[in-house]
Amino acid sequence: MKREVDNFKGTAPEGGERNDGDRYIPADKDLESNQGHPKEQKKMPFLLRFKSTAFGINLGVGSQALLWQQLASSPAMGFLHIPSGIPLAFWCAGVLLLFVVAVTYLLKLVVWPKAVRLEFLHPIRTNFLIAPWWAALLLCLGAPGEITDRIYRPGMTIHWGVALAFSIPLLALELFMYSHWIYGYEERLGATATPASQVALLGNLISAIAFARVGWQDPALFMLSIGLLHWLVVFTTLYMRPSETQQLPRALTPLYLLLMAPPAVAATAWSSIQGPGRFDSLSKVFAFAALGLFLVLAARARIMFHWTFPLSWWGFVFPQAAVAVSFIYYADALPDTWQRWVARAIALFFSVTSLVAFVVDSCVSLWKLCKGSLFPEDEVTKSLLEENG
């Protein structure tokens, strides 16, 4: 058991060299390896195989709800004539899925608390334990007008109580993680940084948008400042990874696309703080930074694409939706000139690619769920099964 926990913390196993994936959970490295020998080992219970990375699905669906709500309500994108039923359908699916995934993971916490604790120690999976809080914020921000007008007053998109209810636990978890990055040794950011580390700090930026929507500019600036500060640190650390052991296993390479999400969300957050129809030079800097990072990643896109389908493929959905939303805000702030059409074209491109990724991920996820292979077996959690007989 000690050896398995050491794998979580990134320490090398005794008597051997680590390869690129040893610092991460073996199931992330060999997602498909256990599926070819179902008769050679006992099938794990579903709850034990259910991982925190499943919350990445909620981020994908929540981002689609927000994206389609923006496409339907944006003056610049009015020529699309998006039916109001489409954002409503995405929103209802997102709420239902968040409820199902959250309840399932709570059951895992009750039945297998030690497995949840090991995921909390994992340098990749621990980031996704923060995801449900800002996935809920995404759904609140992406709620259609038919819903918000009935719950709140007409024209109000989110209530301050809702923003606080999800932002406070989110901030508490993030501060705990940031303190480990600063004070920790094995948990320090220089030893554990991966593109998945951005999942944690993205919550600050989403929370900033929520506070800006309710008119609380100072809390919005506070959350935006914390998010930007740690984004710069994480981004710099990822560019200067000192060791080959910090490379992602091949199954997790789609998470590299998360690199362009923080500047895109920051552009939307700063525009929201400035007020409706405002997209100043700083917002443009963030939006263009996201676009530039996309071009950098696209230059070697073959590294991210492979035919196996782990849950990390859901990492393609949210970043592209985030860039699309930021350029929708940009287009709304421009007069009807050629620049507005360029912003519209960029927003449409990322909207389409995000939707395609969503459809493909949804279909393959449902197919693998029906086959029972969406959540493959895991060597570390298997030790818990053996321990309990």
UniProtKB/TrEMBL annotation:
Topological relation to the membrane, as annotated: Multi-pass membrane protein
Region annotation (Disordered) ranges: 1-39
Listed Pfam families: SLAC1 (PF03595)
GO terms classed as biological process: intracellular monoatomic ion homeostasis
Subcellular locations according to the entry: Cell membrane; Endomembrane system
GO MF, any single term: voltage-gated monoatomic anion channel activity
Listed transmembrane segments: 46-68, 88-107, 128-145, 157-178, 199-216, 222-240, 252-270, 282-299, 311-330, 342-367
UniProt entry tagged with the keyword rRNA processing: no
Top-level taxon of the source organism: Eukaryota
Cellular component aspect of the GO annotation: endomembrane system; plasma membrane
UniProt main location, coarse: membrane
Matching InterPro entries: SLAC/SLAH, SLAC1/Mae1/Ssu1/TehA, Voltage-dep_anion_channel_sf
Annotated Gene3D superfamilies: Voltage-dependent anion channel
Positions with biased composition (Basic and acidic residues): 15-39
Keywords: Cell membrane, Ion transport, Membrane, Transmembrane, Transmembrane helix, Transport
Family of this protein: Belongs to the SLAC1 S-type anion channel family.
The name this protein goes by in its record: S-type anion channel
Gene that produces this protein: KnSLAC1
